[in-house]
Design goal:
about 240 residues, alpha/beta, TIM Barrel, eight-stranded parallel beta barrel, binds ligand LLZGTKA7, orotidine-5'-phosphate decarboxylase activity, Orotidine 5'-phosphate decarboxylase, OMPdecase_AS, decarboxylase
Length: about 240
Amino acid sequence: MPSPISPLIIALDYASLDAALCMADRLDPRRCRVKVGKELFTRSGPDILEALHGRGFEVFLDLKFHDIPNTVASAVQAAAEQGVWMVNVHASGGRRMMTAARERLETHNLDTRLIAVTVLTSMERSDLAETGLDIEPMEQVERLAALALASGMDGVVCSARESARIREICGDSFLKVTPGIRPANGEAGDQRRIMTPADAMAAGSTHLVVGRPVTQADDPMAALVAIEQELATRPQGQ
Ligand SMILES: O=c1ccn([C@@H]2O[C@H](COP(=O)(O)O)[C@@H](O)[C@H]2O)c(=O)[nH]1
């Protein structure tokens, strides 16, 4: 299947396979990738992956594995063997967990992108403090991104607010997959560290994850086209 040149990944956060495919059938796999998350996968199982692959989509399976190294490595292997383009783990699972996942993919010659979640985009400083980390999200994101790089990850999930800093620390080719994307004046909802699509790209994000701004819009296709136009018309060099 041809890789889309677009950085857009549409989050298919739906409660059924039929609802997700209804949306997918309006999308063009040459213009975006799609993301399958916990709700949809728990309800539909691997059938959704087969259906999306059959339609030509590259799929990011966003299950954020976080467990002991052997369990995570086996889950990552299972995802990759189902042909997903990208899968993720939590960087806070630590170096041995991430390394085990990387080694498992290499042992089985699986080329699925493997990335690690740093700090969820729904979290702000006060949320971190309640978990015992009384620091700015940026500090923890920097720490976990460096650990993810050292543990063989292809990139991280972070907010676009951290993309520029991660590019400095981890380089251009290290993927910065950024949810929390909101059009100007868009509703943040439960997200806390947000950015507009154009600003996120200018900051160095390599991929933009967009869910509700498209899927919950009155006219999802118009919302998607508006984002595509915002990206197409952003100033050169940004
Ligand atoms: O830190 C993270 C990690 C994952 N997500 C996922 O991205 C989408 C965002 O959806 P919106 O509707 O655009 O807010 C969603 O599937 C999350 O599970 C994230 O938001 N933040």
